[in-house]
Amino acid sequence: MQRKLSLKLFVVLCLFFISVNAQNQELKNSFDRINSLFRSYNISSMDKDWRTIYKNVKMTYKHPNIIISFDTRIAPGYSPLPTTKLGKNSITTPLKSTTFRLNYNQVQIFNTTDGIEIMECGEKSLEGLWTILTKDDILSKKIYNEFCHFQSLVNNSNFMGSLGTNNMPTSGNNANKYTRKVIKLYRQASNVYTIPCKVNGLALNFIFDTGASSVSISKSEAIFMLKNGYLSVNDILGNQQFQTASGDIQVGTKIIIKKIEIGGLTLRNVEASVVHNENAPLLLGQSALSKLGKIEIDYNNSTLTIINEK
Protein backbone atom coordinates (compact mmCIF):
# COMPACT_ATOMS: atom_id res chain seq x y z
CA MET A 1 0.00 0.00 0.00
CA GLN A 2 2.79 2.38 0.97
CA ARG A 3 4.68 1.54 -2.23
CA LYS A 4 1.58 2.40 -4.33
CA LEU A 5 1.21 5.76 -2.57
CA SER A 6 4.88 6.51 -3.15
CA LEU A 7 4.51 5.63 -6.82
CA LYS A 8 1.44 7.88 -7.18
CA LEU A 9 3.27 10.73 -5.47
CA PHE A 10 6.23 10.26 -7.79
CA VAL A 11 3.96 10.36 -10.86
CA VAL A 12 2.19 13.50 -9.61
CA LEU A 13 5.52 15.24 -9.00
CA CYS A 14 6.77 14.27 -12.45
CA LEU A 15 3.62 15.64 -14.08
CA PHE A 16 3.93 18.82 -12.03
CA PHE A 17 7.52 19.47 -13.12
CA ILE A 18 6.67 18.68 -16.74
CA SER A 19 3.81 21.20 -16.55
CA VAL A 20 6.07 23.83 -14.93
CA ASN A 21 8.79 23.36 -17.54
CA ALA A 22 6.24 23.66 -20.36
CA GLN A 23 4.78 26.78 -18.76
CA ASN A 24 8.21 28.37 -18.36
CA GLN A 25 9.15 27.48 -21.93
CA GLU A 26 5.97 29.08 -23.29
CA LEU A 27 6.72 32.23 -21.30
CA LYS A 28 10.28 32.32 -22.66
CA ASN A 29 9.03 31.75 -26.21
CA SER A 30 6.62 34.69 -25.91
CA PHE A 31 9.39 36.85 -24.44
CA ASP A 32 11.69 35.97 -27.35
CA ARG A 33 8.98 36.73 -29.90
CA ILE A 34 8.48 40.23 -28.47
CA ASN A 35 12.19 40.98 -28.67
CA SER A 36 12.30 39.56 -32.19
CA LEU A 37 9.51 41.95 -33.23
CA PHE A 38 11.35 44.86 -31.63
CA ARG A 39 14.52 43.93 -33.53
CA SER A 40 12.64 43.98 -36.83
CA TYR A 41 11.47 47.58 -36.37
CA ASN A 42 13.54 50.73 -35.91
CA ILE A 43 11.50 53.33 -34.06
CA SER A 44 11.92 56.92 -35.20
CA SER A 45 10.49 59.78 -33.19
CA MET A 46 10.38 63.56 -33.30
CA ASP A 47 9.58 65.84 -30.38
CA LYS A 48 9.49 69.49 -31.48
CA ASP A 49 13.11 70.46 -32.29
CA TRP A 50 14.63 67.27 -30.91
CA ARG A 51 15.10 64.29 -33.16
CA THR A 52 16.39 60.88 -32.28
CA ILE A 53 16.29 57.36 -33.65
CA TYR A 54 15.81 54.39 -31.34
CA LYS A 55 17.45 51.14 -32.39
CA ASN A 56 18.11 47.82 -30.70
CA VAL A 57 14.88 47.99 -28.72
CA LYS A 58 14.56 45.10 -26.29
CA MET A 59 12.47 44.00 -23.33
CA THR A 60 13.61 42.42 -20.08
CA TYR A 61 11.24 41.03 -17.48
CA LYS A 62 11.71 40.46 -13.77
CA HIS A 63 8.39 40.44 -11.96
CA PRO A 64 6.76 42.83 -11.35
CA ASN A 65 8.83 45.06 -13.64
CA ILE A 66 8.96 45.11 -17.42
CA ILE A 67 11.88 47.17 -18.70
CA ILE A 68 12.02 48.46 -22.27
CA SER A 69 15.55 49.53 -23.26
CA PHE A 70 16.34 51.77 -26.22
CA ASP A 71 19.78 52.18 -27.76
CA THR A 72 19.58 55.81 -28.86
CA ARG A 73 21.07 57.16 -32.08
CA ILE A 74 21.04 60.89 -32.73
CA ALA A 75 19.82 62.00 -36.14
CA PRO A 76 22.41 64.03 -38.14
CA GLY A 77 22.50 67.71 -37.28
CA TYR A 78 20.67 67.37 -33.95
CA SER A 79 21.80 67.44 -30.33
CA PRO A 80 20.96 64.62 -27.90
CA LEU A 81 17.61 64.59 -26.17
CA PRO A 82 17.89 66.36 -22.81
CA THR A 83 16.67 65.16 -19.45
CA THR A 84 12.97 65.86 -19.68
CA LYS A 85 9.63 65.51 -17.94
CA LEU A 86 6.62 64.05 -19.67
CA GLY A 87 3.30 64.07 -17.86
CA LYS A 88 3.67 63.39 -14.14
CA ASN A 89 6.77 61.23 -14.37
CA SER A 90 10.41 62.17 -14.65
CA ILE A 91 12.28 60.39 -17.42
CA THR A 92 16.04 60.60 -17.89
CA THR A 93 17.31 60.26 -21.46
CA PRO A 94 21.12 59.81 -21.56
CA LEU A 95 23.10 60.30 -24.78
CA LYS A 96 23.60 56.67 -25.76
CA SER A 97 20.85 54.70 -24.08
CA THR A 98 17.73 55.04 -21.99
CA THR A 99 15.56 52.75 -19.93
CA PHE A 100 11.89 53.22 -19.14
CA ARG A 101 10.76 51.09 -16.19
CA LEU A 102 7.15 49.99 -16.41
CA ASN A 103 5.02 48.35 -13.75
CA TYR A 104 1.63 46.66 -13.86
CA ASN A 105 0.10 49.28 -11.59
CA GLN A 106 1.94 52.47 -12.47
CA VAL A 107 3.23 53.32 -15.92
CA GLN A 108 5.55 56.10 -16.90
CA ILE A 109 4.31 58.02 -19.92
CA PHE A 110 6.62 57.93 -22.93
CA ASN A 111 5.03 59.87 -25.75
CA THR A 112 6.48 60.27 -29.25
CA THR A 113 4.98 61.66 -32.41
CA ASP A 114 5.23 58.57 -34.57
CA GLY A 115 6.90 55.89 -32.46
CA ILE A 116 5.57 54.01 -29.44
CA GLU A 117 3.13 55.64 -27.07
CA ILE A 118 2.58 54.22 -23.58
CA MET A 119 -0.25 55.79 -21.63
CA GLU A 120 -1.42 55.38 -18.06
CA CYS A 121 -5.13 54.59 -17.93
CA GLY A 122 -5.67 52.97 -14.52
CA GLU A 123 -5.80 49.42 -15.84
CA LYS A 124 -3.75 46.56 -14.40
CA SER A 125 -3.20 44.57 -17.56
CA LEU A 126 -1.10 45.08 -20.64
CA GLU A 127 -4.31 45.30 -22.68
CA GLY A 128 -5.10 48.48 -20.77
CA LEU A 129 -1.59 49.78 -20.20
CA TRP A 130 -0.20 49.62 -23.70
CA THR A 131 -1.33 51.63 -26.69
CA ILE A 132 1.24 50.98 -29.38
CA LEU A 133 1.22 53.35 -32.34
CA THR A 134 3.64 52.79 -35.21
CA LYS A 135 3.76 53.58 -38.89
CA ASP A 136 3.38 49.87 -39.59
CA ASP A 137 -0.06 48.88 -38.31
CA ILE A 138 0.54 45.18 -38.96
CA LEU A 139 3.68 45.05 -36.83
CA SER A 140 2.03 47.24 -34.21
CA LYS A 141 -0.83 44.75 -33.86
CA LYS A 142 1.63 41.86 -33.63
CA ILE A 143 3.51 43.53 -30.80
CA TYR A 144 0.29 44.40 -29.00
CA ASN A 145 -1.11 40.87 -29.31
CA GLU A 146 2.13 39.33 -28.10
CA PHE A 147 2.21 41.64 -25.09
CA CYS A 148 -1.33 40.56 -24.23
CA HIS A 149 -0.33 36.91 -24.57
CA PHE A 150 2.75 37.46 -22.42
CA GLN A 151 0.59 39.13 -19.76
CA SER A 152 -1.79 36.17 -19.65
CA LEU A 153 1.13 33.75 -19.25
CA VAL A 154 2.49 35.80 -16.36
CA ASN A 155 -0.91 35.94 -14.66
CA ASN A 156 -1.40 32.19 -15.01
CA SER A 157 2.04 31.38 -13.61
CA ASN A 158 2.66 30.64 -9.95
CA PHE A 159 6.30 31.56 -10.48
CA MET A 160 6.57 35.33 -10.38
CA GLY A 161 10.28 35.77 -11.02
CA SER A 162 12.39 36.47 -14.06
CA LEU A 163 10.77 34.69 -17.02
CA GLY A 164 8.56 32.61 -14.76
CA THR A 165 11.22 31.29 -12.38
CA ASN A 166 11.66 32.27 -8.78
CA ASN A 167 14.19 35.07 -8.28
CA MET A 168 14.62 34.43 -4.59
CA PRO A 169 14.53 31.12 -2.68
CA THR A 170 11.43 30.85 -0.51
CA SER A 171 11.93 27.50 1.19
CA GLY A 172 14.67 25.31 2.58
CA ASN A 173 18.07 26.45 3.78
CA ASN A 174 18.49 28.99 0.96
CA ALA A 175 15.63 31.12 2.29
CA ASN A 176 17.66 31.78 5.44
CA LYS A 177 20.44 33.36 3.40
CA TYR A 178 18.38 36.49 2.71
CA THR A 179 16.95 39.34 4.75
CA ARG A 180 13.91 41.38 3.70
CA LYS A 181 13.45 44.97 4.84
CA VAL A 182 10.05 46.54 4.10
CA ILE A 183 9.85 50.34 3.95
CA LYS A 184 6.64 52.34 3.65
CA LEU A 185 6.19 54.60 0.63
CA TYR A 186 3.72 57.49 0.71
CA ARG A 187 1.59 58.20 -2.33
CA GLN A 188 1.01 61.86 -3.10
CA ALA A 189 -1.81 63.57 -4.99
CA SER A 190 0.43 63.96 -8.05
CA ASN A 191 0.72 60.16 -8.29
CA VAL A 192 4.33 60.10 -7.10
CA TYR A 193 5.66 58.28 -4.05
CA THR A 194 7.79 59.79 -1.29
CA ILE A 195 10.10 58.02 1.11
CA PRO A 196 11.45 59.42 4.42
CA CYS A 197 15.24 59.62 4.64
CA LYS A 198 17.94 61.21 6.75
CA VAL A 199 20.70 63.02 4.89
CA ASN A 200 23.72 63.46 7.16
CA GLY A 201 21.21 63.39 10.03
CA LEU A 202 18.69 65.82 8.50
CA ALA A 203 15.19 64.33 8.08
CA LEU A 204 13.86 64.86 4.54
CA ASN A 205 11.16 63.36 2.33
CA PHE A 206 12.38 62.37 -1.13
CA ILE A 207 10.40 61.47 -4.23
CA PHE A 208 11.17 57.83 -5.01
CA ASP A 209 12.31 57.99 -8.64
CA THR A 210 13.82 54.90 -10.28
CA GLY A 211 14.18 56.89 -13.51
CA ALA A 212 16.49 59.52 -11.99
CA SER A 213 20.19 58.79 -12.43
CA SER A 214 21.20 60.32 -9.10
CA VAL A 215 19.99 61.85 -5.86
CA SER A 216 18.93 65.43 -6.51
CA ILE A 217 18.30 68.32 -4.11
CA SER A 218 17.32 71.95 -4.66
CA LYS A 219 19.57 74.96 -4.29
CA SER A 220 17.61 76.25 -1.28
CA GLU A 221 17.90 72.89 0.50
CA ALA A 222 21.65 72.77 -0.16
CA ILE A 223 22.14 76.28 1.24
CA PHE A 224 20.19 75.33 4.38
CA MET A 225 22.33 72.21 4.82
CA LEU A 226 25.57 74.18 4.40
CA LYS A 227 24.51 76.84 6.91
CA ASN A 228 23.50 74.25 9.51
CA GLY A 229 26.42 71.87 9.20
CA TYR A 230 24.72 69.04 7.28
CA LEU A 231 27.05 69.71 4.33
CA SER A 232 30.56 71.14 4.20
CA VAL A 233 32.60 72.76 1.45
CA ASN A 234 34.64 69.54 1.32
CA ASP A 235 31.53 67.72 0.07
CA ILE A 236 31.34 69.90 -3.06
CA LEU A 237 33.00 68.32 -6.10
CA GLY A 238 32.38 71.11 -8.60
CA ASN A 239 29.98 72.39 -11.22
CA GLN A 240 28.42 70.33 -13.97
CA GLN A 241 26.35 71.30 -17.00
CA PHE A 242 23.07 69.72 -17.96
CA GLN A 243 20.42 70.41 -20.57
CA THR A 244 16.81 71.20 -19.70
CA ALA A 245 13.73 69.97 -21.54
CA SER A 246 13.55 73.32 -23.35
CA GLY A 247 17.11 72.90 -24.64
CA ASP A 248 18.69 75.47 -22.31
CA ILE A 249 22.10 74.72 -20.82
CA GLN A 250 22.11 75.14 -17.04
CA VAL A 251 24.76 74.67 -14.37
CA GLY A 252 24.35 72.38 -11.39
CA THR A 253 26.69 71.33 -8.59
CA LYS A 254 27.91 67.82 -7.95
CA ILE A 255 28.30 66.83 -4.29
CA ILE A 256 28.99 63.79 -2.14
CA ILE A 257 26.54 62.98 0.65
CA LYS A 258 28.46 61.18 3.37
CA LYS A 259 25.46 59.32 4.80
CA ILE A 260 21.85 58.64 3.76
CA GLU A 261 19.66 56.61 6.13
CA ILE A 262 16.65 54.79 4.67
CA GLY A 263 14.49 52.57 6.86
CA GLY A 264 17.31 51.81 9.26
CA LEU A 265 19.81 51.13 6.45
CA THR A 266 22.81 53.40 5.97
CA LEU A 267 24.29 54.34 2.59
CA ARG A 268 27.65 56.09 2.53
CA ASN A 269 29.36 58.40 0.06
CA VAL A 270 26.41 58.85 -2.29
CA GLU A 271 26.82 61.10 -5.33
CA ALA A 272 24.15 63.78 -5.66
CA SER A 273 23.33 66.84 -7.75
CA VAL A 274 22.30 70.26 -6.53
CA VAL A 275 19.87 71.78 -9.03
CA HIS A 276 20.23 75.56 -9.25
CA ASN A 277 16.50 76.00 -8.81
CA GLU A 278 14.86 77.07 -5.57
CA ASN A 279 11.81 74.85 -6.08
CA ALA A 280 13.40 71.71 -7.53
CA PRO A 281 12.03 68.50 -5.95
CA LEU A 282 14.11 66.16 -3.81
CA LEU A 283 14.67 63.00 -5.86
CA LEU A 284 15.98 59.68 -4.59
CA GLY A 285 17.60 58.29 -7.74
CA GLN A 286 19.86 55.47 -8.82
CA SER A 287 23.06 56.75 -7.16
CA ALA A 288 21.37 55.78 -3.87
CA LEU A 289 18.98 53.02 -5.00
CA SER A 290 21.77 51.03 -6.66
CA LYS A 291 23.50 50.77 -3.26
CA LEU A 292 20.46 49.15 -1.64
CA GLY A 293 20.84 45.85 -3.51
CA LYS A 294 17.80 44.01 -4.88
CA ILE A 295 14.56 45.94 -4.42
CA GLU A 296 10.91 45.08 -4.99
CA ILE A 297 8.25 47.78 -5.34
CA ASP A 298 4.62 47.07 -4.46
CA TYR A 299 2.56 50.03 -5.64
CA ASN A 300 -0.69 48.39 -4.47
CA ASN A 301 0.49 48.39 -0.86
CA SER A 302 2.89 51.35 -1.20
CA THR A 303 5.93 49.45 0.03
CA LEU A 304 9.57 49.10 -0.95
CA THR A 305 11.20 45.78 -0.04
CA ILE A 306 15.00 45.54 0.10
CA ILE A 307 16.42 42.02 -0.21
CA ASN A 308 20.03 41.28 0.71
CA GLU A 309 22.15 38.30 1.65
CA LYS A 310 22.79 37.92 5.35
UniProtKB/TrEMBL annotation:
<dbReference type="InterPro" id="IPR021109">
    <property type="entry name" value="Peptidase_aspartic_dom_sf"/>
</dbReference>
<feature type="signal peptide">
    <location>
        <begin position="1"/>
        <end position="24"/>
    </location>
</feature>
<protein>
    <recommendedName>
        <fullName>Aspartyl protease</fullName>
    </recommendedName>
</protein>
<keyword id="KW-0732">Signal</keyword>
<dbReference type="InterPro" id="IPR034122">
    <property type="entry name" value="Retropepsin-like_bacterial"/>
</dbReference>
<dbReference type="Pfam" id="PF13975">
    <property type="entry name" value="gag-asp_proteas"/>
</dbReference>
